[in-house]
Amino acid sequence: MKTIKFANASYLNKLTEIAFSAKKYWNYPDEYYEIWKDELTITENYLKSYIVKIIVDNADNNVIKGFYSFRYNESEKQTGEILIEKGYWLDHMFLEQKYIGSGLGKTMFIDLVNEIKIRNGIFFNIFVDPFAVGFYEKMGCKFIRESKSSIKDRNIPVYQYEII
Predict the structure, then answer these.
(1) HEC profile for 40-101?
(2) Which residue, 28, 69, 129, 159, has fewest beta-carbon neighbours within 10 Å?
(3) Phi, psi for 129 (deg, rounded to 5)
(4) How buried is 61 (Cβ within 10 angstroms: 0-12 exposed, 13-18 middle, 19+ buried)?
(5) What is the pLDDT along the chain (164 residues), one digit of tens a residue?
(6) How far apart are CA 129 and CA 53, in angstroms?
(7) What is the dihedral angle through the alpha carbons of 12, 107, 142, 125, rounded to the nearest 10 degrees?
(8) CA distance linking residue 97 with residue 26, whole number of Å
(9) Among 110, 114, 96, CA closest to 138
């Protein structure tokens, strides 16, 4: 049985490992990981700023298979050329490489929708990795705009999911 529960500080190293592993699935150039180092490293401060949930397999010694994180931005903010609007934002949704395509991403996505719904959210936004566009479209997310990326001369799509 799969269980989704809130993360705590004892999971920091494992979550960081999963984040890097999941990104490496797409064979990005090595120099990207240095740029993404802060974005993909899960710290105690990150846990204080974001709601982070893990998916574990009870039948497999509670092994962490993946995680997701989100937060509510109280106001619009500009980070360099990147605009982050007010509202809920999915920050990370990562699975260990061997579980990509297993259906666990859909399970986490449904849990995310429920978490935002109980907080009275009516939508959330996502800066989508270009390789993950198909997953988010399959989940019902809609493209809303292009955004600059943390990688120079690269844009990424921004999607939105409306909670009905």
Answers:
(1) HCCCHHHHHHCEEEEEEEHHHCCEEEEEEEEEEECCCEEECCEEECCEEEEEEEEECHHHCC
(2) 28
(3) -60, 135
(4) exposed
(5) 789 999 999 999 999 999 999 998 888 888 888 889 999 999 999 999 999 999 998 777 778 999 999 999 998 887 777 778 899 999 999 999 999 999 999 999 999 999 999 999 999 999 999 999 999 999 999 999 999 888 888 899 999 999 98
(6) 20
(7) -30
(8) 10
(9) 110
Kind of pairing, strands 77-79 and 123-127?
unpaired
Q: For the beta carbon of residue 76, count every other beta carbon within 10 angstroms.
A: 10
Tokens encoding 47: 């846990």
Structure-token match 């909670």, residue found:
163
Flag whether the pTM goes above 0.90: yes
Strands 87-95 and 63-73, sheet pairing: antiparallel
Pull the structure tokens for residue 33.
């990981």
The answer to whether the CB of 94 falls within 8 A of the CB of 52 is: no
> Which pair of tokens denotes residue 87?
């509202």
Contact call for residues 46 and 76 (beta carbons, < 8 A): no
The single residue listed with the structure tokens 């990688």 is 151
